[in-house]
C-alpha cells in the first residue's frame, strides 16, 4: 500500500511538474546535470578548454565540436 | 444609491476581476512582474478588455450547461442586462446560487484562458519571432539565450544553450574594481522600471591580481547588486540542438491531448452534471476527476529513479488490485457527485 502511494505520488508530481513548470530556469536540464555532478563538470570543462586551445592555436574560425558521455549515459556535443 | 453601488460591485466582479485573472496567468514565471508594470489606466483598460472577452465566452459556454438551463440562468442574465441588477438578487437563493456558480465558472475559465495564451506564445516562440508578442522583461531573452533564436543571430540557430556564463566588473568604490565570473542562476528586476536589481551566480570565481588567475569563491550563491556593476559580459555554453521530427510531432500531439484532458476536467463536469446537482458538488467533482485522471495516467508512467519500468509493470497483483480499488472509488465518487449514482452525498448540496 505504502509502495503504491509512493509511486503514485512520484508520478503525480512529475505530471504536475510537466504541466505547471514555467520552464524559465536559466540553466537547462542538461546544464544542471553537468554542473551538479563533479565528474561530468570536470569532463565538460576539460573538453571545452581543449576546444578553446584548438581554436586559439589555429586560424580555423569554424565552430568546433567535441562529444562527451555524461555519467547518466547521455551523449552531449560541446560546441565552441 | 445602494442600487448603483451594487451594480458597480457586480460589474467589478463580473468584468474587471476575470480580466485581472487572465492577466495574472498570462504574465507568469519570469514575466510575472509585467502584471503590475505600466500605467494603472492602461492596466485597467486591458483588464476590462480581457474580462469582457473571457465573460462573453464564459457566458456562451455556461448558458449551454444543463445546470444553468435548469436554474433559469438565461432569464436572470436577461433581467440583469435589461433592467439592471434585480432587487431580489440578494434575497432569492436561486439567483445567489446562480451568481456564485457563474462567478466560479468564469474565474476558472479566465485562469485557463490566460495560462493557455501564455503557453501558446511560449511554445510556438511567438514572443521571439514577433515583437508584438514580446514580454517587457528583455533580460530574460538575453540571459536564457533566447535572443539567439531571432533573425539577428541566425548563425546560432542550430545551437541549444546549456547555461549562461557571466563575467562582471564590480565597482568597489575604492578604485580597485573586482572581476567576478560564474554561472548565472537567477536575477531579479525592478517592478516598475524593469531594471536589473540583483544577479545570482553559481560557481563564482574572483580574479586574483597577484596570482594572475581566477580563484574559486567559497560560496553557494554569489549575489551581485547590479547598482555596483560597471559592465558585464555574457557567454553562452551550448550544445547542438537535436531536431527529431518524431519528437516534434509527439510534442504537438501531447499538447493537443493535454489541452483536451485539462479542459475536460475543469469544464466538462458543468455540462455533464444533472440539472439538480448543486455548485459545490460540481466543484468537488472536478477535484475527484483530476485525481482519478492523474491516477490513471500515473499507472502507465515510470516513477523517477533508477527503475525505469512503468508503475503497472513493477506492481504485484495485490498492489494492482489496491490501485484499481482506489481509482474506481474516485471514478464512482465523481459519477455520484455529478448526479449519476445514488444520492449518497446529497448532504453536500445546497437545497
Describe it:
The complex is a heterodimer of chains A (80) and B (351). Helix content of chain A is 57%, strand content 12%. Chain A is built from three helices and two strands; from the N terminus they run αααββ. A two-stranded antiparallel ribbon of chain A has the order 1-2. In chain A, a hairpin with a 5-residue loop joins β1 and β2 (75-79). The two termini of chain B are 33 Å apart. In chain B, α8 runs antiparallel to α9 and α9 (279-299) runs antiparallel to α11 (317-337). In chain B, strands 1, 2, 3, 4, 5 and 6 form a six-stranded antiparallel sheet that branches. The longest helix of chain B is centred in the first third of the chain and has 31 residues, at 93-123. Chain B contains eleven helices and six strands. Chain B is α+β, with helices and mostly antiparallel strands and 351 residues long. Chain B folds into three domains: 2-123, no CATH class; 138-240, SH3 type barrels, CATH 2.30.30; 245-348, no CATH class. The A-B interface holds A 1, 3-4, 6-8, 10-12, 14-15, 19, 22-24, 26-28, 30-31, 34-35, 48, 65, 76-79 and B 28-30, 122, 140, 143-144, 159-164, 183-187, 202-203, 237-240, 258, 262, 294-295, 297-298, 301-305, 311, 314-315, 319, 322-323, 326. β2 of chain A pairs antiparallel with β6 (229-240) of chain B, so a sheet runs across the interface.
Write the layout of secondary structure elements.
The complex is a heterodimer of chains A (80) and B (351).
Chain A: H1 2-20, H2 29-36, H3 38-56, E1 65-69, E2 75-79
Helix pairs in contact in A: 2-3
Chain B: H1 2-26, H2 40-63, H3 66-70, H4 73-83, H5 93-123, H6 126-129, H7 138-143, E1 159-170, E2 178-189, E3 196-208, E4 213-216, E5 222-225, E6 229-240, H8 245-272, H9 279-299, H10 311-314, H11 317-337
Helix pairs in contact in B: 1-2, 1-5, 2-5, 8-9, 9-11
